[in-house]
Design brief:
alpha/beta, three-stranded parallel sheet
Amino acid sequence: MVDIRGEWDNSIQKFCLIADIVTHLVGVAEKEPSDFLVEQGLLVGTTEYFAKSHVLKRTYEDEEHPFGWMQDGVFELFDQEERLYCWRTEEDLVEVASKLP
């Protein structure tokens, strides 16, 4: 979202405007620098957004559940639709992203 220039902050309104016009939405989930809990809710909150979304979830060696229960529920929905992709390193992320339809 930061690539879209203008007076807009990265807000829900900006996210929705962009999400309405794109053909695919790809969320990258990691704990730091920030997660995207609000956006995840929007991805599953409408049939239109959910249908064109994929999530790239970072896994952590030292933590079994690094994300909260709400996010885990969203991950499960994407996993059931085979649109959840896990990665651990930056190299993994690039490889996983290159396999997206």
